[in-house]
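Hi all, long-time lurker, first post. I run a small reading group and we've been trying to get comfortable going from sequence to structure in the token notation. Rather than ask abstract questions, I figured I'd post a concrete chain and ask someone more experienced to write out its structure so we can walk through it together at our next meeting. Sequence below, copied exactly:
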Amino acid sequence: MAGARESIHGQWSSRWMFILAATGSAVGLGNIWRFPYVTGENGGGAFVLIYLLCVAAVGIPIMMGETLIGRRGRQSPINAMRALALEEGLSANWRFLGWLGVVAGFIILSFYSVVAGWSVAYVFYVGGGAFAGTDATASAALFESFTGSALRVIGWHSLFMVMTGIIVARGVSGGLEQAVKWLMPALFVLLLVVVGYAMSTGDFGAAVNYLFAPDFSEVTGESVLAALGQAFFSLSLGMGAIMIYGSYLPAATSIPRTIGLVAVCDTGVAMLAGLAIFPIVFGFGLEPGSGPGLVFVTLTIAFGHMPFGQLFGALFFVLLSVAALTSAISILEPVVAWLVESFKWSRAKASSASALSAWVLGVGSALSFNEWADLQLVGKTFFDWCEFLSTTVMLPLGGLLVAIFVGWRMSQRSTMEELGVSDGFFYRVWRVLVQVIAPIGVLLIFGNALVIFLKDVGVLD
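-- Answer (accepted) --
Happy to help. Here is the structure in token form:
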């Protein structure tokens, strides 16, 4: 029976450690780097409100589903899916859902590490005064010079991947738990410090109004889909990370309450990131919808002209690096757990092999900004293809299959038992969300991304 299973990797020492770990997995570059610029591109407050609704209707139900699969299976996503499918009298081929998540996460880690390496490098660039008194042209030129050097980008990518591999190699209690126990409080403290700094030096009133005063005249179909996609991706869904973390969750812990707290913490960090960034943006007359360059190009201009800008700019990029690291260790963990379970490897060997493999694949993404920049297939670089296949195709497909498995294929008895609830109002609402609303939402994400891709390659006008 499911209750007799125990993870060979250990478990979290408490419910709060799982909350910290799962929040660390969810809080990454997607919250602190991506959320503010996506909000800026889609009109501010109305987008935020739609985003929150999408988290509640799509993100939380699927996250609960991934967690209950992980805890009931008590193994890596691949082996857990196989065990639960057989337990439910289903085909063992459901294990390929586990494979889908693990492979997607592996590909994501390869290019995620490259961008995370930029964050680590910028701690030293900004702290060393490279952006003091700079303007938009000089800031953009420095960024292009940095990413244009294959040696620099690969070097920082290597450093970040080594840090990730070392933490995962130390195991659940000695590595993952110790890391999140120190890194997550540090992340919250750093974020609050930067928010306080932004309040005192930027236009905080304009930022609050922009984020929390919805103007629905700005809402379009594209902004709704962008909010839906951000809600899905910001919670680390579909890549096996939440599933493997769920496998280490103590049996007595309430999944609904715990996942609710994780979602609140994750969303809170995204909001605080907006309050850290937009006061500076508005205070210096910068453009909030300046895209992915908002952090690495636009904000550095402001830090270069602000009092104590070098110190607080460096702290901001430390914050970004910490957020990236807590996500990266959760992405590497599923494949390491599978290697330990399936081949009886030591964690050190499994972590080294996995990190090295992701590093090799990541070199291709690093070179996409310099030596391989002109090596493109239908207008996309190696980096672009890794991002597209993993985040646009594999993650939504994985999220959809998780919703189908827990909503339609697992018995109600099994899901109620794992969630620790009876067949009451809450459970029925969750069933409707995971059976109907979440799949529709994920299909919309997938369909919108496919249309954008077909337009990019010239198939659609």
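A couple of things your group might point at:
DSSP finds 18 helices and no strands in the chain.
Residues 15 and 75 are 19 Å apart (CA to CA).
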